[in-house]
Amino acid sequence: MARVPDRFDFAHLPTALDPLPQLSRSLGGPEIWVKRDDMTGLAFGGNKTRKLEFLAADAAANNARTLITRGAAQSNHCRQTAAAARRCGLACTLVLTGTAPAQINGNLLLDNLLSAEIIWTQQQDPDQVLQNVFAAKQKAGDGPYLIPYGGSNEVGASAYAFAIKELKQQDAAFDRIVFASSSGGTQAGMVVGAHIFNYPLHILGISVDLHAEELSDSVASLATRLASFLGEPFSFSPGMIDVDDSFLGGGYGVLGDLESEAVRLFAREEGILLDPVYTGRAAGGLIHLIRSGAIGPDERVLFWHTGGTPALFAYAEGLIG
């Protein structure tokens, strides 16, 4: 039996599992459903809230007083980390890539409302800045707890192993899951969860920033470590990890026609809001795979909505222009 790490209980779980009949008809099949991890309830929710239940509990077990992590200016992970810190009575320091923008909106606005300390990397290497900030907090006696990019280590990825158990308990049978994959923790957790809880299905990560070989290697490595961490040792190879990097477009965070159409289509057909960076790109990939016939009309497909709604407001000009 899989080991269950310590976790806090602030995510709204289980998240809803909803059919998308209008979208399915619009695309001519397959039968599409959505798993609403955009509704996990922590400062607009998202997939990182699941991870932070485990990460914050581990921080508390280590007597931490400050959560530290990094991300882009519109990082969903950073916004949820700041909220989790406040929920748990901790301080939060965010290392954000680049320089402070002239306009504060989207996730960055929420970071400010949540009173997170924000440190901009300027032209420096983000990982090095993160390590320097951690060392400085440690020296100052601030009790820092370092959360990696995307919360993607064994502790954080545990959440998505148990999310697959949750899905199985919802008595839902799907041919495949499609979702946005970036730092790898969500996909690694799903792969391990499907293995541990005997829930066979095709797990397809649509890469939003990395090429398939790099992301598959990273996910396989993390999945192998996670399986051991959960007391169910198993060696995952990159060949067992399915990543589609066909939809990288102009690069990370660059809104293109693919993302714009997906955001509009989900909103128009189902009243569901996607973000331009992650779920918009993943949904755009899903739509393309259906139209091209790579996903057949008789399949039952689950789109796992990983959140990111606040970022919409930072891309308003591109979406309405």
Any overview of this molecule?
The chain has 321 residues and is of the alpha/beta class. It has 2 domains: 17-46 and 152-320, Rossmann fold; 48-151, 3-Layer(aba) Sandwich (Rossmann fold). 41% of the residues lie in helices and 15% in strands. The protein contains 11 helices and 10 strands. A 6-stranded mixed beta sheet has the order 1-2-10-7-8-9. A 4-stranded parallel beta sheet has the order 5-4-3-6, sandwiched between helices. Helix 8 links the parallel strand 8 and strand 9 (242-244). Helix 7 (185-196) packs across helix 8 (212-229). The radius of gyration is 19 Å and the shape is globular. The protein starts with 16 loop residues before the first strand and ends with a helix. The model has no long low-confidence stretch (mean pLDDT 96).
